[in-house]
Amino acid sequence: MQHRTVSDVMTRRVVTARPGTPFKEIAELLDRNGITAVPVVDDRNHPLGVVSEADLLRRQARLPDPQGHTDPLYGQPDSLTGAETAESLMTSPAVCARPGWSVVEAARTMDRERIKRLPVVDETERLTGIVSRSDLLRLFLRHDTAIREEISRDVLDRTLNLAPGTVQVAVHEGVVTLSGRVERQDLLPVIERLCASIDGVVSVHQTITRLRDDIGAPQRPSTHEGLGSPARHG
Fold it and tell me: Among 24, 71, 187, 216, which residue's Cβ finds the most Cβ atoms within 10 Å?
């Protein structure tokens, strides 16, 4: 089985800013390119931080209110001087990904750090791309037929070497349903785990029985949530 990596889904042509890029120019970069954030890089293209729409709006929210209103959330308004360039606006240090990371690792990092995108750097720490939440979620746009064929071919046949027809696979909206009969109980969690790791799988349901149990009660149905390899730039 082959799973997509960050290198497969990232955007390679990255709009960047320099530490001295002014506030207004950053806003224009975001608007002109239809993006929500830009990495801030040094002269060697090493990411120093990221400036997002949220950073710009946060700065604006701290300006004095024309009506003189105050908000406890922001405390006393800032003066009209302050965060004017990318260096003073950015969130730093930049949390970065590697091209070889699995999309699951990228998703977990975004979730853990509560960020929406990751600059991607090579072994020299130079920026090579950016990956966002939307890039990872595109994996779930895979057609059900492609998911079913990969499970049948790569999981059941090539990896587990099960005889054709041993396990039947149905996929609807990324949800995989498995049925059939296997000889060993310990195969069940393996089958579920491998199917759940396929790109685009939302979850796995199975009602597979063991051959020796066919004359008795069927195995209890189970559900396994898929990571979609992700699972969870920009």
Answer: 187
Note whether 114 and 193 are same-domain residues.
Answer: no
Based on the fold, state whether residues 120 and 194 are members of the same structural domain: no
State the Cα angle at 31 between 41 and 45, rounded to 5°: 10
* Burial annotation 194-208 (CB, 10 A radius, 16+ → b, else e): bbbbbbbbbbbebeb
CATH of the domain at 114: 3.10.580.10
Of 132, 163, 178, the last residue of a domain is: 132
- What would the pLDDT profile of 154-166 be if each residue is shown by its tens digit? 999 999 999 999 9
5 vs 7: CA distance, rounded Å: 5
Could you tell me the residue range of the domain that residue 69 belongs to? 6-132
Rounded to whole angstroms, how far apart are CA atoms 208 and 178? 7
pLDDT of residue 58: 81
Q: CB atoms < 10 A from the CB of 68, how many?
A: 7
Q: What does the alpha-carbon distance between residue 128 and residue 135 come to, in Å, rounded to a whole number?
A: 15
pLDDT single digits (tens) 28-77? 999 999 999 999 999 999 999 999 999 998 877 666 555 555 555 545 55
> What is 42-104 written as a DSSP string?
-TT--EEEEEEHHHHHHHHHTSPPTT---BTTTBSPP-S-S--BHHHHSBSSPP-B-TTSBHH
Give the global pTM.
Answer: 0.73
**Is residue 55 included in any domain, yes or no?**
yes
Same domain, 42 and 156: no
Look up residue 181 and give its amino acid.
R
**For residue 35, is it within any domain?**
yes
Query: C-alpha dihedral over 178, 182, 186, 191, to 10 degrees?
Result: -30
